[in-house]
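It is worth pausing here to work through a concrete case rather than discussing structure prediction in the abstract. The textbook approach is simple: state the sequence, then state the predicted structure, then interpret. We follow exactly that order.
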Amino acid sequence: MSQPRRRLLGLVALAAAVPVAQNVLFEMLGFRSAEGLSPQGSAVWPYDSYNDMRWLLVYHNSWEAYAIGLVVAIGLRGLLSAGLVGLAWPAEKPRPARRRILLRNLGIAAMTAVIVSPFAALSVAAGVVSLSWFVFAAVGPMLLLAPFLQRAAVGSDWMRGLPSAALVGWSLLDFVVITLAGAVVWRVPGWWTLLVAAFAGAGNGLLWNRSVRAAVLPARVHWPRVPAVPIVVVLALAIPVAVQAVTSSPAYQTIDFRPPLLDRRLPASVRYAVIVLGGHNSRYDGRPAVDPAATTFSYAGQDATGRPLPYDARDTHRSLESSAVLLARQVDALHARTGRPVALLGQSEGAMVGRTYLRDRPRSPVGALLMFSPLVRAARAYYPPADAAAGWGIAPGWQLRGIFALVARVSGGGDSPDEPFIRSLLAQAPFYRYQTMCPVPGIRMVAFLPTVSATELPPGPYTRIPVYEMPGLHGGLLGQPEVDEQVIRFLSGGDVESRRREYGTIQLLGAAWQAPTLAVAVNPVWRGQPAPAPSFSQSRLCEQ
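Step two, the predicted structure:
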């Protein structure tokens, strides 16, 4: 057998061994939701480092553990990448000394860890609030960075010029392979995942071969004097900050929350009085509903006559428990005034307020809960409060504070990763992770979910209540004619449910890009709270 062929077989074997070893560990732990991450273990830059940093940011409980884990992760990644680069080096060009390849890859591993760490922190945020926006903000820049960083491991002149079309193509193909492999690894049962992981790793090995070849033997380097890599890194870091700055700016939040349901009388078939709850950063101008049996929930409370007070975006920045207390007063007042059972229609944060209310008050005048864009399987990660000296996820907590502080400075917005709404999710994580989509005895429930939410939802079962899935963005369903028709049908006593085939497919395709779930048992903050067992189980959703 020729030396190039032996090196190719060694490359494929080494790349396959990493995801197989990870999946052996996941199978032993029953860590089903993490299996889709394993193909990234031997992927090309920067996907490999992105995988390392997500695990590190979730699974450390002190600054010391984070520092040690970072050094170990950089060392192992640099060593593995040096081996992969050495085996993938094209025979047409002399290969540098092993020591030189190792030192270069250790340096690149350190640099890449720093670059991708903010994006890994955003993936942690996605696991906390279960919003697909954070997934896109974390993964999108990876596509931009990949062809530029892949040149870094093989040559000294990688900072300048544009990558070749071949390198761009191979990096995009690697993204596709990782995504599809993550879906298939999760989809196959039991120990069959090892076989799929091996094939995925072998595919990574072949992509290392082609990527290194394209980087070492480029046909032509365009713009050879332009420092392209620093420009692209700055651009990649700026994209999520800029988008978040726009969406969190006061100018973006000037639209009052007023679904069409409030601007017309309820049909005679509706037997409920209705309270509509707005989402995070919503506003309410104090206008009453046309029908006296309908009203808007106010995050600012009620006046002396029991009417909901106007509120602005900052009033929504309160804990779910305190919002549920305000809701209880409005529910009691509306029930006393109308004599009807109450239906809660909550959007995003409002849906979580309604679900928290039913958790704390299972026997109440409320007879129905309709949730629009609820935070499904939220609080899968954790970071401690700002005044804590230690705790699981302390590093990403401070990274997120830095990102949000920068966004606030640019936009003038007031969002914070430590606002009471977020902290209440984190403090009661077992409930919001496992119980949000669970039935409450005596309560009619339905959840309306936009298909985009599937990108952040781990594959597998996620609900025990009826759901209505439809194309749309988070917070964009309530008010659509199709949804309004289904709302009236549900309030009139009809059954509402619609599953879309692509929803589960999107869940599978998103599996590779989510942060790993923090086990409930390891976090002392969650001890004593009911949660399924074992720690990583998804199949026991709604069990306590």
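Step three, interpretation. The radius of gyration is 25 Å. The mean pLDDT is 89.
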